Amino acid sequence: MRNLCIDIGNTRTKIALFEDALVVRQWSFANGQDLQLADKAKQIDGVILSSTANVSEAEINAFKQLPCPIHEVLTWKTPVPVENLYSTPQTLGMDRLAAVVGAHAHYPSNDILVIDNGTAITYDFINAHGQYLGGNISPGVALRFKALHAFTARLPLVEEKGDKPAFGLSTDTAIRCGVLDGVRHEIEGFINEMIVKYPNLLVFLTGGHGFDFDVSLKKRIFADKLLVLKGLDCILRNLQAHPTHK
User: C-alpha 40: how far from its chain's center?
Assistant: First the structure.
């Protein structure tokens, strides 16, 4: 089974071609560029699109014209192979749902915390019974840098890359250390709090940023930048296996 999966995020579009659940090709580019799907979708069995950004009519038309049996724009009504217990499923970001589906497919008998460290940082939990129990959202690294600059009178807009001592010795390094160490401590705090409740917890980290975590946590953490795309492929394969859902 050859499937094309498209994840349009807040700033970047990621596409992967799967063959029998394995990634055989992938693309990534800034939003706003031509998807050029026809060149990427030769001899495919299905295509699925998830978006947290606004998708143009031209992009939807290009998507729907691909020559394959199943075209799915992922929404809260799309059947998924987990139980979604979010109280307002129509407001749930589809990338969040796809990520927990992808993580659950890897370890279906484990409690899993999925952390997507992108424009926003999202924390999503799925238990060992395949029940998605929701999560939390906080500002991502870039948003924190921008907020400090935009909502104060004198603090500069600082780049993420640069000197990072243990404690800032200038305004720039103070902001950089505060933001990056603050995010790391936030993530570690969420993980440690969940471990108390779920001792066998596994953690999947995805998104554009990675951190050097405490050694005791590393054995629990799986880094997978393609987790959302893998979840989309799982959802699409579920639709293909149960065509009456369509």
Answer: 22
- Which one is catalytic: 7, 20, 39, 95? 95
State how far the Cα of 118 lies from the Cα of 47, in Å rounded to an integer.
24
Question: Bridge partners of 207?
Answer: 117
Is residue 95 among the annotated active site residues? yes
Q: Which residue has the higher pLDDT, 213 or 169?
A: 169
- Using a 10 angstrom Cβ sphere, with 0-12 exposed, 13-18 middle and 19 or more buried, the burial of residue 188 is middle
Could you tell me how many helices (H) and strands (E) the chain has, helices first?
Answer: 7, 11
Q: Who's near 145: CB < 8 A, 6+ residues apart?
A: 157, 158, 159, 160, 175, 179
pLDDT of 48 above 80: yes
Cα 67 from Cα 44, distance rounded (Å): 8
pLDDT in tens, 109-139: 999 999 999 889 999 999 999 999 999 999 9
| Band of residue 245 on the pLDDT scale cut at 50, 70, 90 | low
